[in-house]
Amino acid sequence: MRLVLLGPPGAGKGTQAKKIIKDWKVVHISTGDLFRANIKNETELGKKVKAYLDQGQLVPDELTIALLWDRLDREDTENGYILDGFPRTLAQAKALDEGLKERGQALDGALALVVPFDVLVPRLAGRRVCPECGASFHIKDQPPKKEGVCDLCGHELIQRDDDRESTVAQRIRVYEDSTAPLLDYYRSQGKLIEVDGNQPVDRVEDDVQKALQEIQ
Ligand code: AMP
């Protein structure tokens, strides 16, 4: 199964992606995670993209598309994948379709998590993540057992720099301007599946499961 996961920052894409990869035995590819790993390891790419992430701006398409194919062309994607955070622009969506076509492949669907904008800011501002294993928590909605400590690996939790309130507003604006038009793009291809992301997380998981079973 080849799937893209759409939705504004804070819609729960990462959480749903983690569940889907377990159930469907596909790999989770998050361009945001790939960029953050490059920044952490101080690679050439990391140095080029850091300012964009810090300011909540999109990394230029050229760099992002090259990064994506570099990852998609690895062997572990043979059984399928879920793309989280890509595409974010029409140019990226078209590049993905064209690249897949050249490889004799196609997307199975675009799953969009629909969440009203007013719940996104508190969701993101309260998010705490583990820089070691990538687990994600929320100070109110999903607190770790011990405050500030990852339940899974015991590492100290951090707040992503771009989850601070000033940057969050900018990221939501960027989503509205550049990424929301992708809903129409995939709708016109008959590939869009919309799921209400503003419900308890297990209800969202159930709805996602049902939707995915339909496209298989
Ligand atoms: P995310 O973890 O998906 O919220 O992404 C964090 C940041 O990484 C974004 O705010 C962008 O700066 C950058 N980024 C991730 N994916 C993309 C993409 N597909 N296109 C451009 N920039 C991206």
How is the CATH topology of the domain at 2-26 and 79-115 and 167-215 named? Rossmann fold
Helix content: 40-55%
* CA radius of gyration: 17 Å
The topology string of helices and strands comes to EHEHHHEHEHEEHHEH
Global geometry: globular
Q: For the report, how would you describe the main beta sheet?
A: 5 strands, parallel
**Neighbour order of strands in the largest sheet:** 2-3-1-4-7
Query: What's the CATH H-level superfamily name of the domain at 2-26 and 79-115 and 167-215?
Result: P-loop containing nucleotide triphosphate hydrolases
Low-confidence segments, given as residue ranges, are none
Compute the average pLDDT. Answer: 94
Which cofactors or ions or other ligands sit in this model?
adenosine monophosphate
Descriptive notes:
The chain is an alpha/beta fold and 216 residues long. It has helices at residues 13-24, 31-40, 44-55, 61-72, 90-102, 120-125, 165-179, 181-188, 201-215; strands at residues 2-6, 27-30, 81-84, 109-114, 127-129, 136-138, 192-196. The protein has a domain at 2-26 and 79-115 and 167-215: Rossmann fold. It has 9 helices and 7 strands; from the N terminus they run βαβαααβαβαββααβα. The protein has a 5-stranded parallel sheet, sandwiched between helices. Strand 5 and strand 6 form a beta hairpin. The longest helix has 15 residues, at 165-179.
